[in-house]
Amino acid sequence: MTSHYHEYVFSVTPVQPGTEILIAELGEVGFESFMETHNGVKAYVVDEFWSEDILDAIEILKSEEFEISFEYSKIEQINWNEEWERNFEPIEVGENCVVRAPFHKERNLPYELIITPKMSFGTGHHETTFMMLQYILEDDFAETTVLDMGCGTAVLAILAEKRGAKNIDAVDIDEWCVENSRENIEHNNCSKITVLQGDASILETNKYDVIIANINRNILLEDMEAYVKAMKPDAVLYISGFYSEDLPILKTHGARFNLEFVNKKEKNNWNAAKFIKK
């Protein structure tokens, strides 16, 4: 399918949570397709929703917390399938796991995750997703109950099931992510994942052996108490979506809720960390 589009290529500092906030605000004014880059996002809007002042309502562009610049161009036609296929390469995580699209050649690895990301976050390309996949591959998920908060594409929940988890709740606040997660779960023939739309406020009854939260520093700090309440004794919490300089405040905050820091991973200044509830 082809359409006339307007393209904005944004550079965002810091990339997260800036890019996440920017995408959310752009979606409110009519932007319908996004491709995350290493330093921001490409955003697209069709002719009928575009105007010269379309960015006037984007509050993050006025924020002093972020440095955001952009380049604009009009694209006469764009074929989204071709564009997406050109930009999505398989990602290998260790020697036994690959994240690939349905159109990529089968690799015959023990863990082959088939993901169609659409506008959702979580293909393994970003450092935070990659490190969380590493954690799931390294640790024991057999017969565990798992919560994947901010599931995006559900790639982490899918790997958790393939690693032996018996019951998984995948939660995201974004309707598009919920739809995309369900599609990816079907692609991977998973049967133990329930996808829910919402935020930490829905965590009232279920208790989990493992919670995975690949979000951003501010939401992790805000929702840490809710995560802990949903954790069984000795449950494990994996978090990511923050920089190395943010780890001390997250460790201190977690300690208030009896979370014991175990270890961390680091990739290009992005961090992931493991905690145990004591």
Helix and strand topology:
Blueprint: E1 2-13, H1 15-28, E2 33-37, E3 40-46, E4 67-79, H2 80-87, E5 91-93, E6 97-100, E7 111-114, H3 127-138, E8 145-149, H4 155-162, E9 167-172, H5 175-187, E10 193-197, E11 208-214, H6 217-229, E12 231-243, H7 247-255, E13 259-267, E14 270-277
Parallel strand pairs: 6-7, 8-9, 8-11, 9-10, 11-12
Antiparallel strand pairs: 1-3, 1-4, 2-3, 5-6, 12-14, 13-14
Which tags fit this structure?
seven-stranded mixed sheet; Alpha-Beta Plaits; alpha/beta; 2 domains; Rossmann fold; 28% helix; four-stranded antiparallel sheet; 278 residues
Descriptive notes:
This protein is an alpha/beta fold. The chain has 2 domains: 2-84, Alpha-Beta Plaits, CATH 3.30.70; 97-277, Rossmann fold (3-Layer(aba) Sandwich). The chain contains 7 helices and 14 strands. The strands form 3 sheets. The chain has a 7-stranded mixed sheet, sandwiched between helices. Strand 9, helix 5 and strand 10 form a beta-alpha-beta unit. The longest helix is centred in the first third of the chain and has 14 residues, at 15-28. The protein is globular. The termini are far apart. The model has no long low-confidence stretch (mean pLDDT 90).
